[in-house]
Every structure is written in C-alpha cells, then in structure tokens.
Amino acid sequence: MPQDDGAIMDKIFTKPESLRDVTTHYCPGCTHGTVHRMIAEVLDELQLRERTVGVAPVGCAVLAYNYFNCDFVEAAHGRAPAMATGIKRSSPELIVFTYQGDGDLASIGISEIIHAANRGEKFTVVFVNNAIYGMTGGQMAPTTMPCQITTTTPKGRDVNAVGYPMRMAELLSTLRTPSFVVRTAVHTTRGIIKTKEYLRQAFTYQKENKCFTFVEILSVCPTNWGLSPMKSAEWVEKNMVPYYPMKVFKTPNLE
Amino acid sequence: MAKQLMKGNEAIAEAAIQADALNYFCYPITPQTEIAEYLAKRMPEVGGVFLQAESEVAASNMVYGAACTGKRAFTTSSSPGISLMQEAMSYIAATELPAVIVNIMRCGPGLGGILPAQADYFQATKGGGHGDYHALVLAPSTIQEAADLMMDAFDLADKYRSPVMLVGDGMIGQMMEPVEFKPRQAKTKVNKDWAVTGCKGRAPRILTSLYLDPNEMEKVNERLTAKYAQMKREDVRFEVTACENDCEVLLVAYGTMARICKSVMAALADEKHKIGLFRPITLFPFPEVALEKAATQAKKILVVEMSCGQMLEDVERVVGKGKEIHFYGRTGGNVPTPEEIIKKIHVILSEAKNPAKRS
C-alpha cells in the first residue's frame, strides 16, 4: 500500500449505512450475515433506509433488528406478514420487509404468508430456507430434506410419516396475485451476487408500489447440520438445489 | 350531532371513526359482524383502512403492526375469536403499544353458542394471553355508553400505551337505541416518539418484546405494574345507585345485567325494599375502593352475571369474608330476568341469618 501522499483515494468497500457496527450472534459459517448485508446494500443503493421498517421473525434472525440500521419491529412467531400488512396498510409511504426462516414462514406462519401474498401486499418477504429450525437447536422444518437427520427426525425425515419438504416459492407462484416470486441461494459467490440482484429487484418493485415481492434464499446451517461451512455449501448444492430449483417463478414483466 | 337510532355494533363502529381510529382489521364472527360490515362501507368514505384478514390471529397481528406506526388501530371480535387474539394482545401489551379490541361476548366455552354471555370476564380482566399483563377493560351498559367508551378507549390506549378492551354481551351488539356522537374535546397531542415511521432525521427505533436479560425483562414487568397502578389511581370508573346506610341488598352487576338490575330495583321499590346497585364500568382496573366502601353500607350483596360467577371472585376478594355474598347467574345465552332476580332477592331477604356465606 503506498503511503498517503496527499492524493485522494477512493474507498471502494465499506460497511453499508443500513447495517450497524456491532458484533454478530450468528454462528460461524452462517449465511444470515451475508443476506443481511445484501439487503443493507440494496437499501443503501435505493436510498430507502430512512423510510424502511423491517419485521423480524422468531428464529435465529429474531435479533435481526440489532444489525439493521433502520426502524424495526419484532413479530410473533410466523406473524410477520400479518404485522407487515398492518404497517404497510396504515403507512403506505413506508418500505416494509419481513425477514423469515423456514419454521417461521412455512410452518407456523404459512397462513399469514399465503394470504399476504394472495392479497398482493406491497411489501417484500425475504425467506431464508436452511431446511432446519436453527434457534431451538436443529429440529425438523417443513423444508427439511427427505432422510435429513434432525433432533426430531433422529432416523432422518420419513416422508411416509411427515410428507415431503414444502416448496414455498412454487406454492406461492400458483396464486394469481403475487407477481414477483424467485428462489436464489447464498452458498456460492455467484448465488450471492444473484441474490442481491433479486433483492434489488424486489425492493425496486416495492418502491414503485407494484406488487408483492418474495425472495426465497437457500441458506446453510453448519451448526445444526453438523457440517463445516465448506461442507455445508456442498450439501446445499447436492441436496437442496435439485429439489429447490433456483429460478424466477414470476415477475410482473412476464404477465 | 343529533341522536340517531343505531344498533350497538354500528354505534361502536361509528364511534371508532369519530375517535379518528382509521385502521381496522377484522374477521367475521357472530354476534359482532355488523361492525365489520358497517366499517367496510364507512372506512373508504373517511380514507381509512378496512381489511378483512384471514383469521383473528392475523387480524390482531395486523393491529399490532399498525399500532407500531403510531396510528390508531383496532379490531373487533367475539369470544372464540378473542381467544385467538390473545397472542397479539400479549405482544401489544409487552411492546407497550396502544390498541383497542372489542369483544361482543357470546356463551362458551368452546364454540359455545351465539347468544349473549359475560363468560369472558376472567380472560378480559386477568390478562388472557401469556405473561404478566392486563388490558384496561371497559364495560358499557347502554348503546350510548358503548359509543362514548369506544371513543374513550382510544384516548386511554394512547395514555397508557396499552391494549384497551371494550366488552359487551351480544345484547349490547344487537340492541338498537338512540345514540349521539358527542363532539370530542380538543385532544392534547400525544407524543408518539416511539413509533416506527422511518428513521429520517433520527436514530432508528426498535419495537420488540424480546428481553433475554432477566433484569431487563423484570424492568418491563415493573413498568407494566406501575402502569396498572396508575390506571387504578386515575381511571377507575363505576356507577353507584341507591346505596345508602340501610341498603338491604347491594346488587353488583355490569353491562346489560346492570340494566336488568335497575328494573329489579324499580320493581322492588314498590315493595319498600332498599336495594342498591354497584356497577363497575372499568372491569380492569376493578373499582376496589369504591366497592369496598359501598359494601359497608349494605347488609347483603348479590352478584348477578351471565356467567357461572366470574366477577363474583373479584367481589369476594374486595369485600372479604365479613359480608354475606350471594350469586345469581345464568349461562348458555340465558339472560337472568328481573323476576328471577327478584325471587332470588326474596330468598336472601327471608333468610334471617344465613348460615352459608354464599347461596
């Protein structure tokens, strides 16, 4: 690095203004931090931070409000889309997003997400799918893969007993109303870049008051999967991606 | 505004609009659905939000969300639906947000029936959801009072940053009476410096009810407890009728039952019996001091409810063991008639010295 000789140097990488300068509670190798950062970068780039209200879930991201540098509220388990509906309907000038895990969104909150989507609520849902309950210590989620071992499926998920994993992006895209539904992943660099692109699109549509926007993000849980971060990324690619295809299910432009 | 003949449910709905409560989320349930139907037409006229949710769970969490933005928000339901709203009410209480919930009570438990009851007293006054909290609970006995209290409910919710519940039985919802929407006093601007409105020009705000540190959680509990003590000091409401020194029987009843008790009093006046009435208007905070004082003037007490005896427990708690306390209740949607209550009073009066405290 050259010594400062008075020339102006461009800062090319910095913490987004929409993130706070605090220590994370997420486990090593967890991708919540990555997703947080992508959202924060998008809020910065679209200059939305000062009019944004985030809705935190119950799950590992319950403390998301400690990391985002914008107004935030904490929902009851699964109710984030209902709460976001109340916020957005009463204050349409706000940018509202929910941040939800698979237990929160696909299990206890499935009614709230389906109806919010079907009403075409004009907020953004960030759905982080890592196929397991993280915060409570690794139980089966609706998105847990067949034969995947969790603390409540000690012999692996038995699809004869509890059915197959739920594909939320597919399910929501069968509804006529919601018009931006995508699935992406953050276990690869390319996936991270794509994720940010989709988040930017989602928040842009919201900014334009266009439609309900849903971004499902395949994610990892090294701690509860019992795998290293690198092995976890491989596990997503090998086990989740074939079952949960990464694609744009619906966009307003396709209609 | 001139008096108009209105159904209780419609009067409650219009009262909310008159109180500038323009964010309403609902789910249909008998016997209060007219509130939703009225507001489905009325809210768009005043630029408010009307939204039929997918469930009472969602409706109440929408109220929770709207309340976070500092806007006046409310929902209405009836007993089984109110059970589903207890989750959001607990969060609203813990997050310290103003919100109004109306319960037009029907008989239960379970799916019960659609007829009037006062069977949700415990749920309304003792918290209802999980954790250490209360809602301030208002119980009107006329349609006019329902309208007045509905408007007051929003002021009280703002004052205490707390859920406020208006409880009426099915009769309050379905009955028609003349009602006048009185002009509201110029409101003092409530400072809502906690609301999430976007952080432009200020530090971000967080509204949560999660406290993992035991001392922080305890501080919240202490703050809520102090709030309930303030409610007891400043906002207890009740009505005492004909409770003088020689009161033979003091009736204690709220809502529609109190009106029926007034008919009883009128009927017994001809018989020269001295019957008084104590009517709690706030069920929480319960008018403890006033009831204790009224009870000292009366020889015997008769609690009348459309339940198996729920407010009865508060009356016993307040009045203590030194006084005969009797109870008369009907359930299942049956409403105690004046004749039944008079018969009960005659039995009580005929017992020179009642060996049992309760009958």
Q: What features would you describe in this structure?
A:
The complex is a heterodimer of chains A (255) and B (359). With 255 residues, chain A is α/β, with parallel strands linked by helices. Chain A has one domain: Thiamin diphosphate (ThDP)-binding fold, Pyr/PP domains (Rossmann fold), CATH 3.40.50.970. Chain A is built from 9 helices and 7 strands. In chain A, strands 2-1-3-4-6-5-7 form a 7-stranded mixed β-sheet, sandwiched between helices. In chain A, 54% of the residues are buried. In chain B, helix 1 packs parallel to helix 2, helix 1 packs parallel to helix 7 and helix 3 packs parallel to helix 5. Chain B has 359 residues and is α/β, with parallel strands linked by helices. Chain B has 2 domains: 231 residues, Rossmann fold (3-Layer(aba) Sandwich), CATH 3.40.50; 112 residues, 3-Layer(aba) Sandwich (Rossmann fold), CATH 3.40.50.920. A 7-stranded mixed β-sheet of chain B has the order 3-2-4-5-7-6-13, sandwiched between helices. A 5-stranded mixed β-sheet of chain B has the order 10-12-11-14-15, sandwiched between helices. Chain B contains 13 helices and 15 strands. The model of chain B has no long low-confidence stretch (mean pLDDT 95). Strand 2 of chain A pairs parallel with strand 9 of chain B.
Features:
heterodimer, A: 255 residues, 35% helix, B: 359 residues, alpha/beta, Rossmann fold, 5-stranded mixed beta sheet, 15 strands, 41% helix
Question: What secondary-structure arrangement, pairings included, does this model have?
Answer:
The complex is a heterodimer of chains A (255) and B (359).
Chain A: H1 32-45, E1 52-56, E2 71-74, H2 80-90, E3 95-101, H3 102-108, H4 110-119, E4 124-129, H5 159-162, H6 168-173, E5 180-185, H7 189-207, E6 213-218, H8 222-225, H9 229-243, E7 248-250
Parallel strand pairs in A: 1-2, 1-3, 3-4, 4-6, 5-6
Antiparallel strand pairs in A: 5-7
Helix pairs in contact in A: 1-7, 3-4
Chain B: E1 4-7, H1 8-18, E2 23-26, H2 33-45, E3 49-52, H3 56-68, E4 73-77, H4 79-84, H5 86-95, E5 99-105, H6 121-125, E6 136-138, H7 143-160, E7 163-169, H8 170-174, E8 176-179, E9 206-207, H9 214-234, E10 238-241, E11 247-252, H10 256-269, E12 275-280, E13 282-284, H11 288-296, E14 298-305, H12 311-319, E15 324-329, H13 338-350
Parallel strand pairs in B: 2-3, 2-4, 4-5, 5-7, 6-7, 11-12, 11-14, 14-15
Antiparallel strand pairs in B: 1-8, 6-13, 10-12
Helix pairs in contact in B: 1-2, 1-7, 3-5, 10-13
